[in-house]
Amino acid sequence: MMREPILAVPELALSGISKQFGAFTALKNIDLSVNKGEFVCLLGPSGCGKTTLLRMIAGLERCEQGQILQTGRDITRASPAQRDYGIVFQSYALFPNLNIRDNIAYGLKGRQEDKQRRVDELLELIGLPGLDRKYPAQLSGGQQQRVALARALATSPSLLLLDEPLSALDAQVREHLRFEIKALQQRLNVTTIMVTHDQDEALTMADRIVVMNHGVIEQIGTPEQIYQQPASRFVADFVGHCNWLNATANGPRSVTLGQAELLTSPEQNLPVGKPCELFIRPEDIELLPTWAAESHTALGKLLHRELIGSIYRLRVAVAQWGGVELQIVATHREMANLRIDDGQLIPVRIPPGRLRSFTNGAAL
Ligand SMILES: Nc1ncnc2c1ncn2[C@@H]1O[C@H](COP(=O)(O)OP(=O)(O)OP(=O)(O)O)[C@@H](O)[C@H]1O
């Protein structure tokens, strides 16, 4: 006998969420489903509505349109206290007059010994045992955010909400904490939604990224999908770097760029005879050690190089491709092998499978 598959109820299901602030529409018809144990990042530029969405999930912002279900329970109109979550804000938001132990224990109920035990467990969990008698001002920013995390997790909520928790910290602490938060989240298997405007943070931490722009969701996908198959020009530009090439389609998957004919990735369906805009990531363009006149290759002139730690970012002008200035990424080893100076010519190649377009507005 055929059985219906048992579909797990999502930990959180948002449907048709919209939000107006007076005449201003901050969110438009948001649908999002988050599974148990998932780490989801809401990513987008300032003002795109990500914090508003997180605050609506927390019940800190009224939801007048749409529905919010937590494990199937309708919490659309529930007060924050009636919902089951812990939250960490950007600024540490610890009570300055309470020591670390009392800060973490703040939301805990029950017997004193149980609370003590739970706080000890949490201090161990965040790697700060022994600091319980200190006051927030005596801790570094990174330590304070770890305490805020312990406080949010104290009651073992089924949902952890993080509102730009790392953005006030310096770069080194931020990178370290990224890793720690992710490891802790996986260990506890706590469903987590984090707001960030930092693409690296989203790419390194999230199981799925929700890219938002002007109150709408542009794309939902794994970090690889978002980076490798962006669904719109906005996503392609916001996550990672892009070269944009103005060409004319001479076939559904071929274009004329300057004096050259180039093939694009196989899944394209370009508007034949019309102008179209193509994109390629800087790291997808190849630098060749020797020149051979082949299709998809041309000689470019190195205009400028910039060392960015482990890589070089190059600017290369290609006359044969209509004078387009390409941004190309090269490793130290490549640069050492190529032995090229600014102003010199270098063979470059565009692999056909890497050239894509959003012309027609479709995700290709
Ligand atoms: N209480 C409010 N009243 C009026 N407008 C608001 C209110 N809260 C947010 N907004 C507006 O809604 C838009 C979305 O704000 P939101 O804080 O959600 O953006 P964000 O993507 O989190 O950006 P940021 O990272 O800058 O906080 C902004 O234009 C903001 O000015």
Automatic annotation (TrEMBL):
Q: What positions does the domain ABC transporter occupy?
A: 12-239
Coiled-coil-forming residues are: none
Which Gene3D superfamilies does this entry report, sorted A to Z?
2.40.50.100, P-loop containing nucleotide triphosphate hydrolases
Question: GO molecular function, one example?
Answer: ATP binding
Q: Which UniProt keywords apply?
A: ATP-binding, Cell inner membrane, Cell membrane, Membrane, Nucleotide-binding, Translocase, Transport
Highest taxon of the lineage: Bacteria
Which SMART domains would you find in this protein's record?
AAA (SM00382)
Q: Name one GO biological process term.
A: quaternary ammonium group transport
NCBIfam families assigned to the protein according to its UniProt record, in alphabetical order: PhnT2 (TIGR03265)
Put simply, this protein is called Putative 2-aminoethylphosphonate ABC transporter ATP-binding protein
- Organism of origin: Chitinibacter fontanus
